[in-house]
Structures are given as structure tokens and as C-alpha cells.
Write a structure and sequence with these properties.
- With 251 residues, this protein is of the alpha+beta class.
- The protein folds into three domains: 77 residues, 2-Layer Sandwich (Ribosomal Protein S8, Chain: A, domain 1), CATH 3.30.1370; 71 residues, Alpha-Beta Plaits, CATH 3.30.70; 86 residues, RNA-binding S4 domain (Structural Genomics Hypothetical 15.5 Kd Protein In mrcA-pckA Intergenic Region, Chain A, Roll), CATH 3.10.290.10.
- It contains six helices and 15 strands.
- The strands form four sheets. Strands 10-15-14-13-11-12 form a six-stranded antiparallel β-sheet. It has a four-stranded antiparallel β-sheet with strand order 5-6-4-9, with helices on one face.
- The protein starts with a helix and ends with a strand.
Length: 251
């Protein structure tokens, strides 16, 4: 547990203690995958009896706000202090996630005020904390050296799909987490186990706590510094008794 984790838990504890006194949710965010895992462990500890919800501006968001409210208090999408900024540029230019994030932080925007950055040809949609919306709209004129037009996203253009997926068939000696991770990424079994013990591997958004955890179809697994994949199906064994799996790998 890091110092930053302890600060998050203290804020979460305060939000939970005061949840019954408010008619409107309290919000923490944006939270990254590790922070979401820390929050979920606290919420699922059994000591919490509140209504809660994670939301990052769209379905499937990786970076999310956590809303905490008393029992019986609804938590709607539009309650969250999130704005969607549309950034348009000439399709001739290929801009990366790092380009967008670097330019935003170059304006003095803190990392925790920026959510997911979804990029398409000629435009991107960036989810930000609402209190920096006006500043970004007035100050952001370039991403790197590329001139851009900035406006609120009104839904008239499709939300970019930021992830591409390839289907990969693998074989493993067992369905242990360290074995599956080692088969999907260029990591030895030992390095996979070390990453799990260091809290760098997440299963369904929660930090994995055991190298021998059994992987199941439907599990979404992410390995910090390597990527994410979904365990799609087990489809038998090889002649040597190894398990055959299909995974959907995000690239």
C-alpha cells in the first residue's frame, strides 16, 4: 500500500461516513485502474453499506470517477462532473494518446483531471473534469505542432473506438494466471509471477492477489506496461494435454 493509496482510502472513508447526510453523491476521480482496484477492495470489504458507481463518461471507460451516495440515492450519468471535449485536426496528421495528454498537461492540467482519450481519424474525444472544461476550450489551440479546433462533444460524431482487437489462440500447461499471462505476452513464467506479486496484473479491474488464480472465460486481464486481453474461450486440449484458449488481445 503506497502513500497515495492511503490518501485515496482516507478520502473514500470520509465520503462513506458522510454519505447518509447528503442528498447528492460525492465524487472521487478520475481514478486509474490501480486506484479503482484499491477502492473496490475497500467497498467490498463488507464494512461499507452505501450506493456507489464507477463512470468515466462512456461505457467501458478505463479511467473513471467513483460516486458514493447513501442508500436509495440514485446515481445518474449526468450527475458526474465530466465533460467531453472534441478536438478536430486535419486527417493528414497522425496523433497519439501521448501527444494529446502532453499538450493538455502543458497547459497545466493535472493528470487526475483527464479521463479517457479516444482517437479517430481527424478528431478525438477527451473526457475531462468539468471544472477545467472552459479553460481547455479557451486555451488549447495545438496538439504538439498541429493546429486544432476545440469544442464540446455534442454526440453528432461517433465516439471513437480507441482499441483494436485481434483474436489469438494459445496453449498453456494450466489455467493459472501466471501461465496465461506468460503465453499472451513476451514474459517468462517467472516475470509474469513477479508482475502479479508486484500488483501490476489486474483481473476484471481488481489487482490479482495470487499467481495461481484460475483464469476463466470472460475474464478481462490487464498487465501494466504490456496491455489487456479478454479470455474468450477454452476449446479443448492438445495431444500433450495442454489447454487451448482463445483470447481477444487489445492492440
Amino acid at each position: 500500500m503506497t502513500g497515495e493509496d492511503n490518501i485515496l482510502l482516507a478520502r473514500l472513508h470520509d465520503a462513506v461516513l458522510n454519505a447518509g447526510k447528503r442528498q447528492f453523491p460525492a465524487f472521487l476521480g478520475f481514478l486509474n485502474e490501480h486506484e479503482i482496484s484499491v477502492a473496490l477492495r475497500y467497498i467490498n470489504s463488507g464494512a461499507v453499506t452505501v450506493n456507489y458507481r464507477f463512470f468515466g463518461g462512456c461505457n467501458g471507460s478505463e479511467r473513471c470517477f467513483l460516486a458514493i451516495a447513501g442508500k436509495g440515492v440514485d446515481i445518474e450519468d449526468y450527475y458526474f462532473p465530466i465533460s467531453a471535449i472534441c478536438i478536430r485536426y486535419k486527417k493528414d496528421f497522425k496523433l497519439s494518446h501521448r501527444d494529446f495528454l502532453g499538450s493538455l498537461m502543458g497547459l497545466g492540467i493535472k493528470r487526475e483531471t483527464v479521463g479517457d482519450i479516444l482517437i479517430s481519424d481527424g478528431y478525438a474525444v477527451v473526457f475531462v473534469k468539468s471544472d477545467v472544461e472552459k479553460y481547455i476550450l479557451s486555451q488549447l489551440t495545438k496538439i504538439g505542432s498541429v493546429g486544432v479546433d476545440v469544442s464540446l462533444w455534442d454526440g453528432s460524431t461517433l465516439l471513437p473506438i480507441d482499441k483494436k482487437i485481434i483474436e489469438v489462440n494459445i496453449t498453456v500447461a494450466s489455467a493459472r494466471l501466471d501461465s496465461v499471462v506468460s503465453a499472451v505476452y513476451p514474459l517468462s513464467r517467472e516475470r509474469s509471477a513477479a508482475a502479479i506479486r508486484q500488483g501490476l496484473v489486474f483481473v476484471n479491474g481488481i489487482s490479482a492477489d495470487s499467481v495461481s488464480r484460475t483464469v476463466k472465460p470472460g475474464d478481462k486481464i490487464s498487465v501494466r506496461g504490456n496491455g489487456k486481453f479478454l479470455v474468450s474461450d477454452f476449446f479443448g486440449t492438445t495431444k500433450k494435454g495442454r489447454l487451448k484458449l482463445t483470447v481477444e488481445k487489445y492492440i
